[in-house]
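User: I'm putting together a teaching handout on how multi-component assemblies are represented. Below are the sequence lines for each component of a complex, exactly as they appear in our records. Could you produce the 3D structure of the whole assembly as structure tokens, so the students can see both representations side by side? Please keep the chain order the same as the input.
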Amino acid sequence: RKEVEQDPGPFNVPEGATVAFNCTYSNSASQSFFWYRQDCRKEPKLLMSVYSSGNEDGRFTAQLNRASQYISLLIRDSKLSDSATYLCVVSPDNYGQNFVFGPGTRLSVLP
Amino acid sequence: GAVVSQHPSWVICKSGTSVKIECRSLDFQATTMFWYRQFPKQSLMLMATSNEGSKATYEQGVEKDKFLINHASLTLSTLTVTSAHPEDSSFYICSGQDLANYGYTFGSGTRLTVV
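Assistant: Of course. Below is the structure of the complete assembly, with chains in the same order as your input.
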């Protein structure tokens, strides 16, 4: 079983739609969780950290379920510019060392 | 914010030649630099971790004699792909960590094509 698993998609959604991605991780000792966004042929960029209590940043909401070992990302009111690959990232420590990247979920927002 | 400048952005080289990729942290000290490789439609895979002034730690399956990493200063780390072969064609990306805040900053990546 891979350490971090994601549905690769692609998810094709119309503008304005709400879309959610899940990510599961196998290491129960994982401490830090993140969502990164990667545009085609570009470097990953931090979208948001994921906290135990869940957190929201504008149209983006991230949640963590430690018991089930999954992380979710919800995007509301999708924009064309949200089209990208969303990477789930897990680390076993609080210092951000030893990042393990998921394979990413590709999102295409259509006009 | 923190910036890591990575060069070149892309390079095409002949099989058997060596290619050097540079990553510079512009406004912070990258005590640790991580080097990743990403094949098409796959996730980033950590190749090695380098700490300034010491030898890099390579992940299992990554040949240290083929992928030479130098991290001689707190602002510069290099990855040299020696005797490149077509199967080394990939997207290579570095990430510097600033221990002051444990933030990760990625370089913009280098797309290597070996022909």
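A couple of points students might notice: The mean pLDDT of chain B is 91. The two ends of chain B are 37 Å apart (CA to CA).
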